[in-house]
TrEMBL record:
Domain THUMP: 60-165
Keyword Metal-binding annotated: no
Localization terms from the record: Cytoplasm
GO CC annotation: cytosol
Pathway the protein contributes to: Cofactor biosynthesis; thiamine diphosphate biosynthesis
Sequence positions that bind ATP: L183, L184, H208, F209, R266, G288, Q297
Database matches in NCBIfam families: tRNA uracil 4-sulfurtransferase ThiI
Entry-linked CDD domains: PPase_ThiI, THUMP_ThiI
Protein name: Probable tRNA sulfurtransferase
Alphabetical GO biological process terms: thiamine biosynthetic process; thiamine diphosphate biosynthetic process; thiazole biosynthetic process; tRNA 4-thiouridine biosynthesis
Pfam families with a match to the protein in the record: ThiI, ThiI_fer, THUMP
Gene Ontology molecular functions: ATP binding; CCA tRNA nucleotidyltransferase activity; tRNA binding; tRNA-uracil-4 sulfurtransferase activity
Organism: Paenibacillus albus
């Protein structure tokens, strides 16, 4: 049976944080956007919770959307009925029946706000609990650690019955923890890093380096597709900055220190990312680095590469193993796109044995030997192409355009 309402719970932050008001406002905006196409849904916000009155709109579809909204800790489908004992008992059994998995233990938790209701909390506990036990042979009461809590709230306007608690994405509402840029390569890791950063409340603008015509148009489309997929979770469009890296990469590849090519490329990428971040008022750089995964992600490499920027380098995947990352990539639906076999700029000119322990002084010497490296970096920043992407359709934005999502 379609429930009558959905109760949405936020994370703890909304209760304790200083920014509770702002979080709740963003949360409400996100929920409104997610259910906008279900025109009969009525939204109510009270005491750090949101209630959706469904008015016949489909629960399963709306639940699927709510699961992906950052900042929602969990939600519960609710039946709303008249405050009559028999109806409450019957609905209690139906609600228990509708659980995805039948529990071995339960308890009834009654809240009687409407004092006109003829039975007190204790009485109602027994009257409903006994009825449910009778309907489910084998089910037991466990007051301390029940698998399921059957909640009954007697309110003046009617009675709410619910038990299922559906876990949602958690984290913080999108954009409530500041803004960063995301280095997005088209591989498996960086989209997952972007998802995790967004879930923690970061607003993101993506940066991708391509070496057109060495890298194909297909490789660019792949990254566009990944940003679109990420924008499903932000709920608002995400900007993608496409940076031409061909000239810089070609210059760096001339170095006699072949094993340092990747280190040098990463250092230039970070310089460009830093300048772009400053342009868009982003205060950090997110990457898909995972400690030790490849030569450029050893601690020693990270040290030499990271010195090119003053901005905090955020690495959500640092301590995660590849299987864990792949599991999330599948779950957020970026995996299949990520494994498409198009060339990434970093797979060109790959040295036979990239250094796992690069020398900072030598890396700096190599850079000094390229007389116009800084000009090339400035040129790459200036000629960056910007796209604004949402799940449905693309639109080309001006580089200078100031956008405020909230
Ligand atoms: P991914 O699966 O994200 O490509 P990876 O394991 O292949 O990661 P690397 O190729 O060493 O790792 O890249 C490390 C990180 O550097 C990436 O996660 C990404 O954040 C950034 N990066 C690499 N190549 C690019 C690129 N062409 N454009 C933007 N960022 C890049
Ligand atoms: Mg890669």
């Amino acid at each position: 049976m379609n429930p009558d309402m959905i109760l949405i719970r936020f994370g703890e932050y909304t209760i304790k944080g200083k920014n509770r008001g702002m979080f709740e406002k963003r949360m409400l905006q996100q929920v409104k956007r997610a259910v906008a196409s279900y025109t009969s849904v009525h939204i109510r916000q009270t005491f750090g919770r949101i209630y959706l009155e469904l008015n016949g709109e489909p629960y399963a579809e709306i639940a699927a959307r709510l699961k992906d909204i950052f900042g929602i800790a969990s939600f519960s489908p609710i039946r709303k009925i008249t405050s009559e004992l028999e109806e409450i008992r019957r609905t209690a059994v139906e609600v228990m029946q509708s659980l995805p998995k039948q529990p071995a233990t339960f308890k009834v938790a009654v809240k009687r706000v409407d004092k006109q209701f003829p039975h007190d909390t204790q009485e109602l506990n027994h009257l409903v609990g006994g009825h449910v036990l009778h309907a489910f042979p084998g089910l037991k009461v466990n007051v301390r650690e029940p698998e399921v809590e059957l909640r009954i709230e007697i309110q003046p306007e009617g009675t709410y019955v619910f038990s299922e608690v559906v876990p949602a994405a958690g984290g913080y509402p999108y954009g409530t923890n500041g803004k960063a840029v995301l280095l997005l390569s088209g591989g498996i890791d960086s989209p997952v890093a972007g998802y995790m950063a967004m879930r923690q409340g970061l607003e993101l603008e993506a940066i991708h380096f391509h070496s057109y015509p060495f890298t194909s148009e297909k490789a660019k489309e792949k990254v566009i597709d990944l940003v679109r997929r990420l924008s499903h979770y932000s709920g608002v469009p995400i900007k993608l900055h496409l940076v031409s890296f061909t000239e810089i990469q070609t210059a760096l590849a001339q170095t006699e220190h072949n094993s340092l090519i990747i280190t040098l490329m990463r250092r230039s990428m970070l310089r460009i990312a830093t300048q772009l971040a400053e342009k868009v008022n982003a205060l950090g750089i997110v990457s898909g680095d995972s400690l030790g995964q490849v030569a450029s992600q050893t601690l020693s490499s990270m040290n030499v590469i990271g010195r090119t920027t003053d901005l905090p380098l955020l690495r959500p995947l640092l301590t995660m193993d590849k299987n864990e990352i792949i599991r999330i990539a599948r779950q957020i639906d970026t995996f299949e796109t990520s494994i498409l076999p198009y060339e990434d700029c970093c797979t060109l000119f790959v040295p036979k044995s990239p250094s796992t322990n690069p020398n900072l002084a030598i890396a700096m010497q190599c850079e000094d030997s390229i007389v116009n490296l800084n000009e090339m970096i400035a040129e790459a920043v200036a000629t960056t192409e910007v796209m604004k992407l949402s799940p449905e359709k693309p639109s080309v934005a001006q580089t200078t355009e100031e956008d405020h999502w909230f």
